[in-house]
Amino acid sequence: MTITVSDVMSAARDMSAKLEVSVRRVIAFSACSDFSTYVDVDGDDFHWIVAERAGREVKRRTTHSLDELMHWLAVEVTFHMAWEWGMEQRSRFPEREVTGTDRLARQVELLRRLDGSWAAQAQEGHVDAHSPAFG
Q: 62-88 burial by CB neighbour count: b if 16+ within 10 A, else e?
């Protein structure tokens, strides 16, 4: 089955609604900062790209699968959401240490809103607990 940009946008809107974030937080189709992740479309290929300053590409994954692309995006966005949650917890409760285990638990909770199997993979360690941009 061929996926289209419209299919990807529809899935991104659904994901953003479930995570209660802007669709811009889930997906971009061009580099938009010094360090960014974005999706590029080349015919039937969808490329998930991580770029550094001046657009220097540091990582690229390619797929024809909407589910696989959305999984990559979900892991990325939930990683950042869990990291921000941890920073908020540290500022609200300075006496409490927020660990990587705490952030992973938050990420799993967020992934569970999207797909139970994605959450299970993260919890079982089959998905890098860190952002795919760095993995």
A: ebeebeebbbbbbbbbbbbbbbebbee
